[in-house]
Every structure is written in C-alpha cells, then in structure tokens.
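Continuing from the previous page...

OK, I double-checked the sequence for Choline transporter-like protein against my notes and this is the correct one:
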Amino acid sequence: METRTPPSVLQNHSHQAQERRVSSSTPNQVQEPSHPNEPAVGWRIFRWLSTIVFKIHICLVAVLVIVLTVLRLRSASKTHHFHPKEWYPPLLASIGSSGIIAFSWQAFTGCSPSMAFKTAFWFSPVLSLASGVFFVIVGSRGGLAAGVILIVSSLIVSVYVCWINHRLNYAIQLLSLSTKYPPTNTPIFVFGSIVIGVLYAAFMVIGIGGATSITSSFKALFIAAILLSLTWTLQVIKNVVHVTISRIKYFNLAWGREKDIRAAFYDIIKHSAGTISLGSAIIPFISFIHGSARAMRLVAGDSDEFLFSCAPCYSELASMLRNHGNRWGFVHVGVYNKGIVQASYDTWEAFEKVDLEIVIDSDLTVSFCVLCGVSSGAICSIISGIWALVIHKSYATELAIYAFLIGYFVCRIGMAWPQACVSAYYVAYADNPLHPRFDSTVPDRIRELRRRLQV
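Thanks. Re-ran it with the corrected sequence; updated structure tokens here:
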C-alpha cells in the first residue's frame, strides 16, 4: 500500500537537507528490519516471565472479582449498609461516559489538533477546579482531601499553562505535522481499544462493589488490589495502542510505506506483549522520579541551602533512570522488537547525537495527553458524584474518586495514538535527520532553543 505523504515534506531536496544538519555527527542510515530481532537469551526469559506474570495477575484478579461478587450476592439479604441499586448505576454511567469522552478527544485531536491542544490546556484546570469544589461540597474527610488536591492542582496547572504559553505554537505545529496522515483504520482500532478498556473497568467495578459490601478486615486490601490491577491493565492497553501506531508511523517516515494495522497489532501481541507489560509498570514510576527531579531543580535554582543539597544527586539518578527507561523507547520496541531497557537507551543515545534532547525535554505532547485525561476524569467524577449525591450521599465521595481514576486512564487509551505519532516522528528523525521526508520544523526548534540557552 502506498503511503500518502504531505507535499510540504516532499519538497525539500538535498541542498535543503544539508542546511538541516543538526550536529557534526553522522546520522544513522537505518535499515528496514526484514524480521523481528531476537533479544539476548536473558532478556527473552525475562520478557517471557513478564508475560506470564501479567496473565497470572489477570486470572487471579478475575477470580477475586468473581468470588467477591458471589459473596455479595449470598449476603445481599443480610447486608443493609450496601445498596447495589444506588452504588452501581452512577459509577457504571460514568464509565460509559469515559468511553464517549475518550473517543471524542481523540477524534477532536485528529480533526483539529490546534483547537484540541488549546482546549486541553485552558479548560482542564477549570474542570479539575469544578471537580475539586464538588468534593469539598460533599464534606466528607476523603472528599475534603481530594477536593484540596484537585483545587491546588488546578491552580498549579493554570500557572504552568501561563509559563509554557510560548511553547504552544511549536507543540501544535509538530502535533499537526505528525498526525496529519494517521495510519489507515486508526479510529476503528482506537475505538476497539477504548471499548475493551471500558468493559474491563466495568468488570473491575463489580469486584470493587463486592469488596465494599463485605465486612472483612481485608476489604481495603481487596479494593487496593483491584485498583492496582485496573491501573496496570489500562496502562498496558494504552501502550499496546502506542506501540502499534508508532510502529506503523515509523515505517511510514523511515521507509515510506505503511503496514496494515491488524498485522502490526498481531506482531506486537506476539513478540512484545511482555516488554509492554513490563514497561507499563516501570516507566510511570521513572517518569514520576524524573518529573519530581525537574521540579526540585527548578525550585532549588542556584541555591546552596542544605534543604536542596540532594537535588543534584537526585537529578543525576533521575537522568540515569530516564536513559534506561523512557516512553520514547516504545518506538524501537515495536519496530525492532528490543527490550524496553535497550530500546530506551538506544533511543536516548540517538536523541543526544542530534541534539534532540533539548527539544524532548520541552515537549508538551505528554502534558497535552495528561490534561485530556484529567479533564475526562473530572467530568466523570462530577457525573458519578452528583448522581450519588442525589440518591445516596454517603456514596458520593468514593464513587467520584473511582470515576475520576477510570475516566483518566480510559481517556489516555484514546489519546495514545497522537502521542505515538509524535514519538515516532522524533525517533525517526533522530535515527536519520537528513531524510528528505523531514522538513525544517525540528531543526529550527533546535536552533531556537540553542540561542535561548546561550543568552
């Protein structure tokens, strides 16, 4: 199948390409893999173990949900503190709403990246503030805590939006460029992934309701286990979408052809399921460490106070972890069947060779996707919370919290494909920056950031 390519990208020839040399290093001449690479034996065993652990955890959690549901049904006539007709409908309605919102966000992004980007950055703080106010109005201890966190977060995000306002134009330009020609059948693939996420979340909610109805001292442990499983599984679904789409986009950008999305998906499930499940567990943790290190570095500045004496060491640790585990590595996982550690290291090394790390550090794509998720979670929490507040006030806080978490993660599944397109664009550029398919967008941004650093 031939790949459609933007005319603006094809019009750059050899003379223009020479002007776009980013550094003195020679770019890699990447070769198309004829078949998936086989990692080292040790990594293959570890990847197999990761797959087994993920499948076993799914089975165990499914058994737990079924057992809790049976216990709830058997004790229905004896239990008076739990009312399923008032507990389940608000939460299930918010889960359905999360699927609609997720698909709407990804469709909005595909149709108008510029408007979607601005909407996410300007309306997400408003929606999270509204959700926080609702939690405060409910008045419970958990509601007050959640409300304060959301209100403070909305104020921080508002300041953040003002701070990065000058970076929005470039982020919108790159998002528009990388998503202009998405893989064929992307909406169908994303819709199917969202439906799977919604159905799995609904199944997990049944288990949470069963755990809530029992009087066991392990109730909190059961709920925590189900929520952790829900989070990990939805992350895996999101990253399967991410790896599949980024594989196709990389093939498009690097070699000028498009793979069938079903074939790419089957390859990913067959060869990279263990890598994705492992990466879904460790990369959010590494991203949190790296984000907190950046925040600490910004607060510390040039201060030599004892309070910030650990900032340089912590920052160095975060950078080391980031080099060996980052979301950009998912591109090489899909294309070359590498392990997540090797893929992350190779990808970051390629970024450094072409001075792309200064652009990556200021990238707003992940912030955009996170804010879309936050807005979805806020809307879902308001839907579930208000419904519960009307029919059974004591359920309002817990249902709104569950709805927020599920709305966030389901929306991230829908927003995985724009993030994958941007990731594939950056990684393909880093592997071969002189390829005629790339225009001057990224090189111009590198030069601009260099000038700012020199001032």
